[in-house]
Amino acid sequence: MRPPRWQRDEIILALDLYHSIEPREMDNKNPKVIELSEILNKLPIHKEREENIKFRNPNGIGLKLSNFRAIDPDFDGKGMSSYSKRDKEIFFEFKGENSKLKSIANQIKNTVSNQKVKSKLYQIPDDENDETHSAKEGKVIYKLHKLRERDNKLNQKKKDLYFKKYGKLDCEVCGFDFFETYGDLGKGFIEAHHRIPLSEIDGETTTNLKDLALVCPNCHRMLHKAIDTLSVDELKKKINGR
After folding, report:
1. Are 185 and 130 in contact (CB under 8 A)?
2. What is the pTM of this model?
3. Is it the case that residue 3 has pLDDT exceeding 80?
4. Ordered DSSP codes for 40-80
5. How far apart (Å, rounded) are the C-alpha atoms in residues 123 and 143?
6. What are the residue ranges of helices labelled H in the chain?
């Protein structure tokens, strides 16, 4: 079985390693390369990896690092030119911003190191309509964001507190009230959006009631569409400013 193409999370982790070691260290016997192989095999992204013993093994990582050498204009030598368009795009996205790259890489590592959280992330399905392309932190952290939004007990507490305070469950962005429009059919219906930016969450982060906003599905989808740049308050201003 041919290994699946590298995802954003994986490229970020490999690129962080590329900038952390010397070219002469980029081989399959380097402990850091072996460690990265183990981390990549823990990412809750590719289900088929369990059936493929070659999945993201040290040899494959060495090849990916060689791809970066071919892309890197500062590398005095040659690398393997069989890199992907995505490799090149992400390489130059983070060029000169190694600290940001390392921060995201550490965020991903911290998340998958939490076994309890990692197992739950496998339960978050890949949706073809997910706007993961807008998430600089990649699919793992995006799934963690969605996991935080699916805490039913916390969501119910948020609904109860909000209803006690306002006497209704309306969207905090556009004000739509499902009960008002649909009657009993819409009673108690509203979705929860996790306010905390993706860049600030990882596997150790806990969610508090103040971190949640109650929103309708339409506004929720718009928030996810620009998840790295659009907050609840900013979307509300966009609507009110039309």
Report:
1. no
2. 0.87
3. no
4. HTTSTT-GGGGG-TTTT-HHHHHHHHHHHHHH-TT-SS---
5. 9
6. 8-18, 31-40, 58-71, 85-93, 98-113, 115-121, 139-149, 152-166, 178-182, 217-225, 232-240
